[in-house]
Amino acid sequence: MRLPQDLAGIARFILSDECKSITVLTGAGISVASGIPDFRSSGGMYDTLRPELITATPDERRAMEMDPTSVVEKGMFLQNPFPYLEVRRPFILGTQSHKWKATISHRFADLLHTKLPNKLARVFTQNIDGLDFQCEALNLDHKIVPVHGTIGKVACEFCGIEANYEQFCHDVRANIKDIYGVDEDAPKESSSILCKNCKRPTVKPTTVLFGSSLPDDFFEKAHLDVPQADLLIVAGTSLVVSPANSLVNLVPTSCLRVIVNKEPVGEFLGIDYDTSSLNKRDFFACGNCDEVFLDLICQLGWLDDIEKYLDDLPPSSAEMVRNRKREQG
Predict the structure, then answer these.
(1) pLDDT beyond 90 at 47
(2) Can you tell me whether residue 27 is helix, strand or coil?
């Protein structure tokens, strides 16, 4: 296969009979337009963490001062679940209320599945924000693999039994204090949320804690789907976190790899940005994820289809679609 020279060529390949199986790997970049909180960057929740406000022992607070990510360590959670639940409280409740909406980038995968049945094998997302699950067709057909778990599903960390998501969110609202001072109705002190099966206070979203293994589903689906891919789309990820980044080398050598990002990533994994290279199979779509995917949607002839999602898009994403519609008359 000759490497496409532009997004129009990528679109032609997607629509062709030559492209039978598509795998998508996503990272935080596809959720930027939603306005969802960023835990890791400057000004994010870890950077602004105030351990003195959290329900914890002096030793646990010192551990959080030294390393804010200790709030998402398995050992800390099993010892004291309140740091995790108090830090993540607004994120849990915001996800439940759809405070943040799936972006154009998320909806692109949804359109791939609905417009071209049987071509999209899987969406592997490294994001825990649960926005992929707002894409109902992807969710209903079990196309989404949350590599690091998700805020949108709940289970007991100790015994593994799933819990009711809506009941858990109700319990978080009623039992977990607000360390950010924005919810006047929050309790002044936190109290335990018990697992109905093992009676331990270890119910939480299924996000993978540091010190835990990734879900078996990731490894099973990766080895089932990825070696069959004709097209791998990598979007909004630095490709530095393993084992998710291993997907770029699980695809066959004949697979076209499209990298959607603001800067080149994954060179140490063999992603080749030299356009003069022999056996070239890597296409770099440089730019903001939503902008690139909107361009690709237009090349595929799906602008009218993405327009149907206007009310379900973040304001900035919706405005991009409206502007593109005006440009095209």
Answers:
(1) no
(2) coil
Q: Give Cα 113 distance to the centre of its chain.
A: 17
- Residue linked to tokens 């994820």: 289
Rounded CA-CA distance 313/95 in Å is 15
Of the candidates 95, 103, 9, 31, the residue with the CA atom closest to the CA atom of residue 306: 103
Please list the active-site residues.
148
Q: How far apart are CA 193 and CA 175, in angstroms?
A: 7
Query: How are beta strands 22-26 and 154-156 bridged, if at all?
Result: unpaired
Q: Which residue has the tokens 């070239």?
A: 280
Whole-model pTM: value is 0.92
Bridge-partner residues for 128, per DSSP?
none
What percent of the chain stands above pLDDT 90?
Answer: 90
Closest Cα partner for 91 from 133, 126, 129? Answer: 129
Tokens of residue 18, six digits: 């030559």
Residue type, 67: D
Answer for the pair 217, 11: CB distance below 8 angstroms, yes or no: no
Residue 37, pLDDT above cutoff 80: no
pLDDT tens digits along 87-102: 999 999 999 999 999 9
β partners of residue 22: 120, 231
Supply 293's token pair: 């995917």
Q: Distance between terminal CA atoms of the chain?
A: 35
pLDDT attached to residue 231 = 98
The 10 Å CB-count burial string (b at 16+, else e) for 247-262 is bbebbeeebbbbbbbe
Contact 230, 256 (CB under 8 A): yes
Length of the chain, please? 329
Banded pLDDT at 44 (limits 50, 70, 90): low
Q: At what angle do helices 315-327 and 289-300 cross, to 10 degrees?
A: 40
Closest CA relative to residue 7, chosen from 248, 274, 230, 283: 283
263: pLDDT confidence band, cut at 50, 70 and 90?
Answer: very high
Element counts in the chain: helices (H) and strands (E): 11, 8
